[in-house]
Amino acid sequence: MRIAGPLLVALVALLVGLPSALGHTDVVATIPAEGARLASAPAEVRVTYGQPLLSVEAAAVKVEGTSVAGRPRLARADAGTVVIPVVDERTGAHAVSWTVLAADGHALAGTMSFSVRGPAMPAMLRPVSDALLAAGVELRAVASAAA
User: Fold this and answer.
1) How much is the average pLDDT of 27-52?
2) For residue 96, with 0-12 CB atoms within 10 Å meaning exposed, 13-18 middle and 19 or more buried, which class applies?
3) Do the beta carbons of residue 89 and residue 40 sit within 8 Å?
4) Distance between CA atoms of 82 and 88, rounded to whole angstroms?
């Protein structure tokens, strides 16, 4: 029975490590978060995996079909993080997609989305905007009467 104890410990250690050895790495975080609603466009999108990656094969950030992404790269301090620069501050729905090469040689692809709603009109400009709209209505009325 002296062999059974160490054998049991070795078997448990093997079974605990088996899922991570058989499985692929997963995305553990994105910045911005999936579905986030932002007031302004981020400078970059970050996708972090639970394990190091070998390379970024492709990445895109699109707004209404137009690319707003710069050249993607792995983060210098963390080989498990993909960095995709955002080079255009467009508002609207941002669709992000990527393909990376995992340390085990398998290609991993993913998608996420977030939206940029743009800055709200400052409260001090609201009276100016209302006055301009009212002036436009009056001008239209004068033009109609003159015609």
Assistant:
1) 96
2) buried
3) yes
4) 19
Query: Per the structure block, which two tokens stand in for 140?
Result: 């239209």
pLDDT at position 15 is 43
Domain that holds residue 113: 25-122
74 assigned to some structural domain: yes
Which residues touch 45 (CB under 8 Å, ≥6 apart)? Answer: 30, 31, 32, 61, 69, 83, 84, 86, 96
At 99-137, the pLDDT tens digits run: 999 999 999 999 999 999 976 666 667 787 778 877 777
Q: What SS3 class is residue 17?
A: helix
Among all chains, which residue has been given the structure tokens 């409260």?
A: 123
Q: In angstroms, rounded to a whole number, what is the distance separating the alpha carbons of residues 35 and 115? A: 7
Q: Is the pLDDT of residue 78 over 80?
A: yes
Q: Which residue has the tokens 């078997």?
A: 11
Q: Count how many domains the chain has.
A: 1
Tokens 């995305």, located at residue: 27
